[in-house]
Each structure stands twice: as C-alpha cells, then as structure tokens.
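pinned: reference chain
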Amino acid sequence: MGGMGKLVCPCLIYMGSHERFTTEKSHITCEILAYLAEHPDAQDTVEGIAAWWLLEQKIKHTTTEVKKSLSALVDKGFIVECKGKNSHSYYRVNRSKYEEIKAISNKQKQHDKGKP
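pinned: its structure tokens
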C-alpha cells in the first residue's frame, strides 16, 4: 500500500467518525456498508464477508465500468454490438478493425513491460 493516500470515507463522516484510513481500508468499509444497505438481514463470518459481500460489490462496480468501456469501443467501431433474441447484447470484434486492435494491444503490452 506504499503510495496510497489517506482520506476520510464519506460513509464514516456520515457516521460521525473522522478517523483517517488508507484508501483501501476506506473503500472496504464503504463496500461493507453498501452491501448491508442492500441486504439488511445479512450476517456472515470475516471469511464470508471477504469472499461474498465484497465480491458482489466489486462485480457491480466492474460491470458498470465494463459497460462504459464497451460503449466507447462500439462508438469507435472497434467492436460490434448485436442484440440477441433474449434482449441481451453480445459483443464481438469488428473484423475491419482487427489489425488496428492488434497494434493497439501490442503497444500496450510493450508499455506494460517497461513498467517496474
């Protein structure tokens, strides 16, 4: 957690606490409260909370970010969105952009290799 800053979690301010937490600890605290807000009858062990409650919250946030990324990729023409009979959207590569996609991916890989 070396370079992470300190912040006051908004949910802790609401509870009247001004204790400073690392960004990660603050995030987990808020995620637990978010889970309990949606599941007021929930109870679990530390292991269960880590494995299930926090996972569910992460999936929700990740899904939102994936939707934003997919929308941007569709807008740029890199992927194609197809509506299925079940009203779900399915995404696939736009074959006419495949070489450009490979070039972008290779650049990113080279950039990542240069990181410590």
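why pinned: The chain has two domains: 1-65, 76-116. Residues 46-75 form the longest helix (30 residues).
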